[in-house]
C-alpha cells in the first residue's frame, strides 16, 4: 500500500512540474516563434496560439467573489492577441499576412472571421480571480487556401521519363580498340538518382520560416517554390515542414525513407525565408524527373535554428 501511495505522489508531483497543455505542447525539436508576450507560431505543427487574460475589478482581487468572473473578457483579449500574431505570419520572404489584409477588404474580413472561429483549448481560473483563455488556429486548410499565393495551381499527375538506353538499338557493334594497361580507366557517368523528399539544413543562417518559401541555386534559379507544388498538398500539408533537429527532419514521414540532404549556403530576401543551395545539389535534384513528384507533394523539410 505504501508503494502504491508513493507512486501516486510521484505522479502528481511530475504533473505539477510538467503540466499537460491539452495537446499543443511543443516538442524540443519543434520550431516555435514567439510573438509578443501572449502568442506564438508553431511552424512544425502549423498552428498559431494566443492567450488572453481577464482580470476582475481591483476591489475583488484575492476574494472569493472574483472566482466566478465571466471569462468572456479573457476570450476577447485572446482574440485580439491571436489577430496580432496572425498579422505577422510570413507568407514569403517579402510579405506578411497584414500586407494582404491591407490590400483587400475581403481578405481582411475572412481572416478576422477565421480568428474569431479559433478553437478554445484551455480556460483557467487563477486564485486571484484572473481568467486565462488559450486559442489555437491552424495555418493550413481554409487559412492556407486564402493566404497562399494564387500562382500555386493544382498540378496534374507527373509522368516519369525513362532514361535513354546506353546503346542505341540496331546500332552496329564496333570492335573495341586495345587499351594500354597504363591508360586511365574510363569513368562511367552514374545514372540520375531519384529521392522521396528533400531536407535542407539551414542552421546557422538565421533563416526564418514562411508559408511559401523558395529554394534557389547559386545562380538565382528556382529549385523549389510555388511553381513546383500542387495547391492541394500545399493547402493540406503546408509547402514545407520545419524543425530544429536534423535527425527529426530526416526521419519525418513527410520525406519518407530516401530524402536528399542538402546544406543551405545563405538566405535571400528581407524576410530571410528563401534558402540558397549549391549548384551541384540543385543539379542532383533536377537530374531525375521522379524528383518532381516529391516536390509537387511538398515533401520538403527545412531545418532551422
Describe the model.
With 305 residues, this protein is α/β, with parallel strands linked by helices. The chain folds into 2 domains: 27-147, no CATH class; 197-303, no CATH class. The protein has 9 helices and 13 strands. The protein has a 5-stranded antiparallel β-sheet with strand order 1-2-3-5-4. Strand 11 and strand 12 form a beta hairpin.
Keywords:
single chain, alpha/beta, 2 domains, five-stranded antiparallel beta sheet, four-stranded parallel beta sheet, elongated
Listing every helix as H and every strand as E from the N terminus to the C terminus, the arrangement reads: HEEEHHHEEHEEEHEHEEEHHE
- Percent of residues in helices comes to 25-40%
Please state how the strands of the largest beta sheet are arranged side by side. 1-2-3-5-4
User: How confident is the prediction overall: mean pLDDT?
Assistant: 82
Radius of gyration: 26 Å
Number of E-state strands: 13
Number of domains: 2
Distance between the termini: 48 Å
Beta-strand residue fraction:
15-25%
